[in-house]
Design a protein that fits this description.
It is a single chain. The protein is of the alpha+beta class. It folds into 2 domains: 79 residues, DNA Primase, Chain A; 172 residues, Dna Topoisomerase Vi A Subunit, Chain: A, domain 2, CATH 3.40.1360. The protein contains 8 helices and 13 strands. The longest helix has 14 residues.
Length: 290
């Protein structure tokens, strides 16, 4: 059993002697305690929208250290398998921030998103807007084209991505409304990655996180791809996502994966069309579990 109370104290978190308690959230300007911690379940949740999930992620985010480094350098008697394969709230479904209503406007010509290589025609295709904070707001649609909610990509706030209230990310595939049946289907984490790949001619959907769900696998099957190429982020979470996804989809499709160069976090950071093409061409075939 993980002694979460001792670990939190070690990293300077003020706790109480109760199993569940509230603290001032360290991830946003917080005048009243809005972050709940349960040391028995090893979980946290910020009610203001900063995220939630397992305490391993909270401690990593709070300390600025990768959990693998913390795990390696500490000597706690911990069974990490207890939560290794369980999705956090952040990786699974989020129900944060606001419902937008009519508070959205067209993207101004000087918006920061254009500095990342996007054009007005790309953003118009995906029905993107901005809110009063100049954040990019991206609608998420079902396969039939019905809007299920919105993603907000913030430029100067943590976390960078927020989702509209009640949105069930694990039951959606961003970009599926633009596809029918496909030969090769590319799987990315984020909406901007999917938009970028689509712009360069690669049929792509985003799983909106690093972990794929059974519902998303079913949606992928509805497109009848002959090959699925995993293009998840170049970080530890992305690698775990590839490992998990190959287990969930093995035997259903021919599976490949992309090795993104170390200097890039994701495919959207690759600005050069020819370099992107080269990276994708060098995909590796998944050989199956041993």
């Amino acid at each position: 059993m993980m002694d979460w109370a001792s670990i939190l104290i070690k990293y300077g978190v003020q706790i109480s002697d109760e199993i569940q308690f509230d603290i001032v959230c360290p991830f946003h300007h917080d005048n009243t305690p809005s972050l709940s911690i349960n040391v028995e379940r090893g979980e946290w949740h910020c009610h203001a929208g900063c995220g939630g999930g397992k305490l391993e992620y909270f401690i990593s985010k709070f300390s600025g250290k990768p959990w693998k480094e913390i795990e390696t350098n500490e000597t706690w008697e911990i069974d990490f398998s207890d939560f290794e394969d369980k999705p956090s709230v952040e990786e699974e479904d989020s129900d944060s921030i606001i419902d937008y209503g009519d508070n959205l406007v067209d993207i101004p010509s000087n918006h920061w998103i254009f500095k990342r290589g996007f054009t007005k025609s790309i953003l118009d295709k995906w029905d993107c807007k901005v809110n009063s904070y100049n954040d990019l707001v991206i609608p998420i649609k079902t396969k039939e084209g019905t809007t299920s909610g919105w993603i907000t990509r913030r430029i100067q706030a943590t976390p960078k991505y927020m989702y509209s209230k009640g949105l069930k990310k694990s039951k959606l595939l961003y970009g599926i409304n633009h596809l029918q049946s496909v030969g090769t289907l590319y799987i990315v984490e984020g909406a901007l990655d999917a938009m970028w790949m689509d712009y360069h001619g690669y049929p792509t959907v985003a799983i909106l996180g690093a972990r794929i769900s059974k519902a998303q696998v079913s949606l992928i099957r509805s497109l009848y791809p002959s090959e699925v190429v995993l293009c998840l982020d170049n970080d530890e979470a992305g690698q775990r996502g590839i490992d998990r996804a190959t287990l969930d989809m093995e035997g259903l499709f021919m599976l490949s994966y992309i090795n993104i160069p170390d200097i890039y976090k994701d495919l959207q950071e690759i600005p050069n069309k020819e370099l992107l093409k080269k990276v994708i061409k060098n995909k590796a075939l998944w050989r199956g579990s041993i």
